[in-house]
């Protein structure tokens, strides 16, 4: 019965995630009437789609519950991944990563690191994970391999899962994104100069894979 409630909770949070990913890229200084119209448009859009994001997040919550039960790990990963879902959706739609979203996720990860420390859990892996992920991704960004927004995502992932898991997630995400880029270039040779891939969704997909499996 509890797992059903967790799925429903995840489903509802999925709607919130979709709402944020739809509205955050909008101009903050839009008139109130415009905001109301945007909300009405969003409601129609949600009712006309298959709730993929909501179902996905509900399923992820259930899997995390089955693995971690109602532990600190469950709340750490479910809350962290929820915000990262927002980051991934915005990046996929706009090819941009907003500091406001990654900052919230980073603060949340730090809060759980502090909670773990207060409960006698070693935080060394998480601190090293955040620093190492930042240095590694920063080098890639300096070489124009990835964007600086992706550096923020990597830092958050390092703080969330630690050095070991973030290393695996980085490797998987690079392989997946690189594979997609190669296939895209081979299929559409004429458009390869304008190729721009949202790397964030690949990072977060790889992170979810590492957390679950």
From TrEMBL:
Residues 81-182 form the Prepilin type IV endopeptidase peptidase domain. GO terms for molecular function: aspartic-type endopeptidase activity. Its EC number is 3.4.23.43. The chain crosses the membrane at residues 47-66, 73-92, 98-118, 125-148, 168-187, 194-212. InterPro entries: Prepilin_IV_endopep_pep (IPR000045), Prepilin_peptidase/N-MTase (IPR050882). It comes from the Bacteria. The keyword Transmembrane helix applies. Keywords: Hydrolase, Membrane, Transmembrane, Transmembrane helix. Belongs to the peptidase A24 family. This is Prepilin peptidase. It comes from Clostridium neuense.
